[in-house]
Amino acid sequence: MNLIGLTRADLTTLLAEMGEKPYRAKQLWHWIYFRGARTFEEMSTLSRDLRRRLAEIHTLERPRVAREQTSTDGTRKWLLAFSDNREAEAVHIPEDDRGAVCVSSQVGCTLTCRFCHTGTQMLVRNLEPGEIVGQFLVARDSYGEWPTPTDETRRLSNVVLMGMGEPLFNVDNVARAVSILTDGEGLALSRRRITLSTAGVVPMIERCGHEMGVNLAVSLHAATDAVRSEIMPINRKYPLDQLMAALRAYPGVSNARRITLEYVMLKGINDSPADARALVHLVRGLPCKFNLIPFNPWPGAPYDGSSMRTIERFADILADAGLTAPVRMPRGRDILAACGQLRSDSQRERLQGYRARLAAMSPEARAAEEAAHARARTRASDEARAVLGAAPGA
Ligand code: SAH
Fold first, then answer.
1. Which range of residues forms the domain containing residue 175?
2. Could you tell me the distance, in angstroms and rounded to a whole number, from the CA of residue 121 to the centre of ligand 1?
3. Tens of pLDDT along 293-350?
């Protein structure tokens, strides 16, 4: 079993079952999440015998780095492969005194937002807690930031759940990952340094605040149901009045702790002065800040990005109404391309290899492989549907 991803309670139980005292679990946790140990061998405070027994049946496996790229502006991106060779991306975005690691919550995504490249990808499954935490560990490894710096000068100081996938379609695993990331004797990230971005899975928003206590970001992207439903199909299930009501009721929301509203600027779709004024009206009284995002184009995308002048004019209208509305400057453009693209390129090559392997299999083996493939996809879709309240397989 991979120990990365077990909660503190799970790890304590596991060691108790091995006949060890609770303080051993504490030591092991310290090695894994404070020191960043990658082998049991190096855990010198544990007895040789315990290290050997652990190594016999357990691993400390991180996702494998299939590709790593660093931008001229310091942004670093990893394409990560999990034990089943499915892939997702993580990105580190450095700033002067801190840095956020953007992690994925699913392989692919079931949402199909029309401007998002991830929505075009076929393979979808939920990531396990260890696969989510593992992305952060890989970033730490990559910067050699072990042991966990205890002052506030960490380069990897923040986590944003804004990578591939919809975190609120995978709440249990994401919540477990958050409990590991925030454990004070390990990675010790404050909940205020973790932001979860959702497309607006309304029934899960309260739970997100209650159970995880993280900052909330919402992909708003439109001020009217007509536009939002066109670009984000989830809006048909949870229209704006429901979404806004859930945001106003978000546990812990206050002027000191505002909700981030992401707004991707699409030329001629949602970027007019009338749209900006409608937004001002929509968010009245909600403690929030905007994040205006220049559209990141990808081959075949059905939209163009708004011009910088249009974006500035839009931002000015929000600012004049007293709203905070910075424009998110594109980072790492030389390596990033659009969200999800790194994985797509690699997936194309991989799919060719996969097809060749399938072709070489016996008919039974091929049928079994294809069935396993279909099951993983159906499982992720069914979980999404369960949250959405639709019948599985519908
Ligand atoms: N499913 C979650 C998190 C993943 S997307 C959510 O919807 O919030 C992270 C952010 O990137 C979202 O705001 C998403 O709308 C935005 N995004 C997706 N594709 C983009 C693109 N091509 N250009 C700019 N922003 C994009």
1. 64-345
2. 14
3. 999 888 889 999 999 999 999 999 999 999 999 888 777 767 754 455 556 565 555 5
- What is the Cα–Cα distance from 171 to 179, expressed in whole angstroms? 12
Note if 116 is an active site residue. no
Concerning whether 339 is annotated as a catalytic residue, the answer is yes
β-strand pairing of 106-107 with 99-102: unpaired
**Which ligand 1 atom lies nearest to the CA of residue 221?**
15
Quote the tokens at residue 166. Answer: 């919809």
What's the rounded Cα separation, in Å, for the pair 334 and 319? 30
Report whether 383 contacts 170 (CB < 8 A): yes
Q: pTM, whole model, 2 decimals?
A: 0.87
Statement to judge: residues 46 and 83 lie in one domain: no
* Nearest atom of ligand 1 to the alpha carbon of 298: 22
Number of domains comprising the chain: 2
Residue having the nearest C-alpha atom to atom 18 of ligand 1:
116
Among 109, 113, 339, 383, the active-site one is 339
Q: Please name the helix (run of DSSP H) or strand (run of DSSP E) that holds residue 292, with its range, or none.
A: strand 288-294
Q: What is the DSSP track for 300-322?
A: T-S--BPPHHHHHHHHHHHHHTT
**Digit-coded pLDDT (tens) for 105-118:** 999 999 999 999 88
Whether residue 251 is found in the same domain as residue 315: yes
